[in-house]
Specification:
Helix content: over 70%
Largest sheet: none
Oligomer: single chain
Distance between the termini: 14 Å
Structural class: mainly alpha
Shape: elongated
Number of domains: 1
Strand content: under 5%
Length: about 55
């Protein structure tokens, strides 16, 4: 299953990463990115185990 974000979501994530880079440097931004990625991967995993009707939403 492929996850595609709305362009506004992508822009928001990039904006947050930039903010974290400004606040705490590249390591903080990388930690945020890793956490966001892990969260979305867990969500995709849950969807892949959901009943077929739930996957069509």
């Amino acid at each position: 299953m492929k996850l595609t974000f709305h362009r506004d979501v992508t822009a928001d994530i990039i904006r947050i990463i930039t903010h974290f880079e400004d606040l705490g440097g590249p390591n903080l931004a990388k930690e945020f990115h890793a956490e966001v990625r892990a969260t979305f991967l867990r969500a995709l995993e849950c969807l892949s185990w959901a009943p077929p009707a739930a996957n069509k939403r």
